Amino acid sequence: MDYKPVSPELLQQFRLIVGEAYILTDTDDLEPYSHDETEDLQYYPQIVARPQSADEVSALLKLCNENYIPVTPRGAGTGLSGGALPVKRGLVIAMERFNKIVKIDEENLQATVEPGVITEVFMDAVAEKGLLYPVDPASKGSCFIGGNVSHGSGGPRVVKYGTIREYVLNLQVVLPSGDIIWTGANTLKYASGYNLTQLMIGSEGTLGIVTAIVVKLIPQPKYNALMLASFTTNEAACGAVSAIFRAGVIPSTLEFMERKGIEWVIKFDGLVFDLKDGIEAFLLIEVDGNNQDVILENCEQVNTVLENFDCKEVLFADTTAQKEELWRIRRTMPVSVKSNSVYKEEDTVVPRAALPVLIKGIKEIGAKYGFESVCYGHAGDGNLHVNIIKGNMSDIDWNTKLKDGIREIFKLTVDLGGTLSGEHGIGLVQKDYMNIKYTDVHFALWRGIKQVFDPNGILNPGKIFAPSPLKGGIEV
Amino acid sequence: MDYKPVSPELLQQFRLIVGEAYILTDTDDLEPYSHDETEDLQYYPQIVARPQSADEVSALLKLCNENYIPVTPRGAGTGLSGGALPVKRGLVIAMERFNKIVKIDEENLQATVEPGVITEVFMDAVAEKGLLYPVDPASKGSCFIGGNVSHGSGGPRVVKYGTIREYVLNLQVVLPSGDIIWTGANTLKYASGYNLTQLMIGSEGTLGIVTAIVVKLIPQPKYNALMLASFTTNEAACGAVSAIFRAGVIPSTLEFMERKGIEWVIKFDGLVFDLKDGIEAFLLIEVDGNNQDVILENCEQVNTVLENFDCKEVLFADTTAQKEELWRIRRTMPVSVKSNSVYKEEDTVVPRAALPVLIKGIKEIGAKYGFESVCYGHAGDGNLHVNIIKGNMSDIDWNTKLKDGIREIFKLTVDLGGTLSGEHGIGLVQKDYMNIKYTDVHFALWRGIKQVFDPNGILNPGKIFAPSPLKGGIEV
């Protein structure tokens, strides 16, 4: 069987399931669902459905499964790897009406939340109870927590608090068959069969659609301190990163930013900042906890380390406003860099001590292929986002040569013990590089798992390890 | 095809692969491999092989796969769910020669370790470098880290530091096909395809054999404080548990012990302890960190909470020797309880605020079915080990009625939002209870995943969700 378009009869059934008002078919209505935050890519779905319950998702999926309709689940559309792009058309299931915080359980320090809740909205709600949900991607103000689950998201605080993988306890998932399951239990430990919760996290909507999420919460730390350290070279900044841990300090964030990143925030976001000559790189370092003396002590330890890495200046944020201003630099950097030019963003991750070699290599590869790059990211995790800027590169080079350059960057990443993506996922735009690290054996296991969950290959086709062998027109 | 016994020709091939000295066939030599620490169960394998390298494991597995020989991987044999019992005979692959700490990478705070290294040996080796590997099951002095991976192990410090799931970064795995893969990357984050590392953790040797493990390390905290709090009721002790977290303290351990557990340590381990009348339960509470003032402050916060829960006494350990003595009580409790009688141990886990209801229910179920139980465990995680003692129960009741009682305990556990095992695994002895929580859909997904990795069903047959449907005599 080949994938099928949605017939008028089927469309009518969709309308009966979710209600007339929540089925979109006009081109203008479909447009917002035709792109995410990935470069300038655009793919229109045939239809968008906006269900509100697991039962509705179940009924939709069952019909699509029986009729070989490709289905692309969609969160807030803030993804950077094209995971939400409906490359085979078909149906987009948009999760924006799953927007309820079902329960904040203060006794157990857990919460149940629907996948269409904006991450920051959820963080704020638990913060009001004195609790912390620490998984805060740069897009926290607009991304959905369901998308975070699907991508195994991180953010600046992973370095101390871990990724979303360490917070999700249990998931309600609708399978292509229409079956609705809970993947695990609402417990901090789980040793009861293969861990389906962990398998779903980072599966990018290819195995099932998440309709409810149970997460662990922790007590909100009372205090934090934030400092911005400036360095004459990228290598010095990156070198300081692993030394801070070796000194026994676990910062709550440890972010790297290139000078150019700051320049573009100044240019595009109106930042007022005294950017000194000779400074090439910055580390934004936060420590948090419940005791001011300990935080001060940690800051001193960090300072001592920085002195050994040719750090030119350390700026302490004294007030909440100053802290917000420093964070604004980091948080607006992605959009500032991207507003400048056509770009591609790659999400590299290596063991953290390999960062200096990685960043040096990225610049050398750029020089070889004639592209400029701006790097920033979660240096404490060894996670560097590499923004490749088209700038003056010719269209021909951009569309042909560049791919070889990116391949070299990923090759270097893998050679350093790393992998292609730390938190953005593989989606559409990284899948062609997966064979740099992974073998036919990995692909066979992944495809086998995919077949178990989605035998007809309807869920988010064309992603991660696709193109797969086809059976008829269906990816298997 | 049915499972086959190992033919003399195949045995000769095994000898060529691992060397004559490392193939055991005599009954006396096989005896140590015929049981683990699970009750009084005993199953002899036909043959034991003791390979030393991934290549040797690969060659063995390939032959067994081609010849339908059941293979049971074995660590130190300290498991409590019968996971290492060769219930279908065949070949036991004993991992004890995989006993090297390959590398402690102080720059990246990572280590590479073989699966046959004793957990405590590894902990001590990293502690010498000022680093902490915090996953310390009660059996840390004898269990293997490979077994810990296979069971998703925890231990007392999970409450602050997380389970082994949060420390394993990458695994070298041999598949039944003989293929050797690394499941992921040596990175703190990973969003590059389905997470095979997490899938392997807790899979109890049914998907592949782990031959090398890369783990994350953290800085060793400098100080800790340990206190033993006594309560007049189990419910009061369990009730205090979630209140401690709500007060904003995350202890590094928070262990529950019933009075009877202490009585048996006194009786069987020669403990000198002033066990006061009216005391029914204890919490062993540790806080750790790098600042003595903060630790003291945390202890005071804990104390304030305890006062609200009818705590009768708090004993502070002032010296290292006193700390060791308190830990000895907890660590020797399992063996002391078990030396007393035939027993069964069940590993329940619930959201932590449900502990008082769980323990009350366990006692009521015991009264109904006529069995005595001794409970202890990692209360901070909601994880309670329930030791059911045969005592005066008749053999008939023990062998028939008891199963219904255990089923009721697990039913209660599941009703409270929990699951059957938090850290011991399902193995052989819990598998019949899996259908209390899990549906045919779960079983179909698990079996599907099993088939992808192990299409001939040779790896650790008869465990977790077996008995499976048979194709010939092979579980699929």
From TrEMBL, chains A, B:
It comes from the Bacteria. Residues 41-220 form the FAD-binding PCMH-type domain. InterPro entries: FAD-bd_oxidored_4_C, FAD-bd_PCMH, FAD-bd_PCMH-like_sf, FAD-bd_PCMH_sub1, FAD-bd_PCMH_sub2, FAD-linked_Oxase-like_C, FAD-linked_OxidoTrans_Type4, Oxid_FAD_bind_N. The keyword Oxidoreductase applies. Keywords: FAD, Flavoprotein, Oxidoreductase. Its cofactor is FAD. Pfam families: FAD-oxidase_C, FAD_binding_4. GO terms for molecular function: FAD binding; oxidoreductase activity. This is FAD-binding protein. It comes from Mucilaginibacter agri.
